[in-house]
Amino acid sequence: MTVLVHAVVSLGMLIVVPLGLTLLPTRTTSNRWWFAFAVPGAVALWLPRGPVSIVLASVYFAGTLVLIALAARHFFQHRTISTRQVALYTALVTPSIAALALVAERSSYELFGFNLTVLSLTVAHFHFAGFAAALMAYLTADGLAAVSVPLGTAIVLLGFFLGDPVELAGALVLTTGMWLVGWNLWKRSRRADRTTAILLMVSGSVLVLTMLLALSWALGHVVDTPYLPLEWMVATHGVANAVGFGLCGVLAMRREGAR
């Protein structure tokens, strides 16, 4: 399971996030600077826990703080908040949560009392349910769809501290938002070229299954209902969201932008 989680996170750090940054209005003249932080972060994943991996993970954390600075600059330039801007700022802030969890996990430190497995999954979660989901909400949605993704992500995060019922509520809100985003992706596919349409349809379609799995997981921790074991959740929900939704979605939006 560890190898699969690390592969998913590496995909987020080195491909999904930098591609996604090119689609945002906060981008700088070049996003090549991102790799100066992301490559050390990705290397940290594959090294044994210890001083070297801690330093490399900390470099990545510093890079995610640059994204927060870009979000702050965008806000002070515009001085307005819309539902889409909430999604935009969520996309820029959530990688820092992932990076902080990575530093703690590489340090063998149970941050806020969470064990190392939970911290490792948090790194993956906030690259995709955080950055990628909020990014797609910003690019494709408005109103309820745009705000429910960041709201659901925030409630799920609170659920880590307040208990499983809160996490279930967050999963319900997040699922609603993700399905609305998926529907918008399907609608966009009708007016796209063939390759882009396929990418959009894949990105929107996988959300039906992956979010049902997320709901069953959250529900099973509140009431006695069946849910997949953790290893299978990573292999199904995690991989499908990372590749099917995150990667295909970002590639589709890049193709739209190029046209």
Question: Mind explaining what this structure looks like?
Answer:
The mean pLDDT is 93. It is globular and about 50 Å long. The protein contains nine helices and no strands. With 259 residues, it is mainly α. Helix 1 (2-21) packs parallel to helix 5 and helix 6 runs antiparallel to helix 7 (164-189). The longest helix has 29 residues, at 230-258. It has helices at residues 2-21, 33-46, 51-78, 83-106, 116-140, 143-162, 164-189, 194-220, 230-258.
**How many individual β-strands?**
0
Helical amount among residues, as a percent range? Answer: over 70%
End-to-end Cα distance, whole Å, is 39 Å
Question: Mean pLDDT, rounded to whole units?
Answer: 93
Oligomeric state of the chains present here: single chain
Biggest sheet statistics? none
Q: What string gives the helices and strands in order?
A: HHHHHHHHH
Determine the strand fraction and express it as a percent band.
Answer: under 5%
Q: Unreliable runs, pLDDT <50, ≥5 residues?
A: none
The tally of helices reads 9
Structural class: mainly alpha
Tell the overall outline: globular
Rg result: 17 Å
Brief write-up:
By secondary structure, this protein is mostly helical. It has helices at residues 2-21, 33-46, 51-78, 83-106, 116-140, 143-162, 164-189, 194-220, 230-258.
Features:
single chain, 259 residues, mainly alpha, 9 helices, 82% helix, 0% strand
Structural topology:
Layout: H1 2-21, H2 33-46, H3 51-78, H4 83-106, H5 116-140, H6 143-162, H7 164-189, H8 194-220, H9 230-258
Helix pairs in contact: 1-2, 1-5, 1-9, 2-3, 3-4, 4-5, 4-6, 5-6, 5-7, 5-9, 6-7, 7-8, 8-9
